Amino acid sequence: MTGITGINDLAGYNKVANAFVGLNPKVGSGSGFVMKGDNDIKGNTFGNMPESGGPRVDLCTCNCKAGDDGVGCAGWGGVAFKYSSLLWIDPSNGRWTGQIQAFQNVGDGLNFIGTDTRLYPGGPAIYNVACTSQDCSGEFSGVFRQANSEISCSAGIADKDAGAENGCSKRCASIDTYTQWIGYCMADKENTSLGFSGYGR
Length: 201
Hints:
By secondary structure, this protein is an alpha+beta fold. It contains four helices and nine strands, in the order αβββββββββααα. A nine-stranded antiparallel sheet has the order 1-3-4-5-6-7-8-9-2.
């Protein structure tokens, strides 16, 4: 297939891959429903929905690489999960969306899978993930969603200065692309040739 938006477009995805790198500040507390104990989905007393819980953190995207059918990104999100996503322009509607998988180091491991929606490269991001009892090693099962605003250099610089262990600058410290994004943010003038986003906001 040729000439179809989003398909076999390595050059196009290369142009925007770096725009996804950076910090997307979370918007509100999102929604997270953990099923365990009396609400365990495998239990005899299942049927009540627990209160939504959290808190989730800002979305950190450390690095992205282009492929023929989308952009692969790696970073951190949720409460403390590592994630990888495959984002693309959906040929059926022209929107940026994709798949996300994530892992959190709790007990024998929490494994999530779901969807990752970006309004545009560098724009607001909304991820929606779930884990079954088996995926979450018997700890719980659940469904989770968090909205994040567009990538923000001011938020990224503040995060770097704060130096929190769960901050994006700490979590992405070993990744050159994220370090380069921080440099782009701190420059006196925006260098658009780098392909990053978030300058001046």
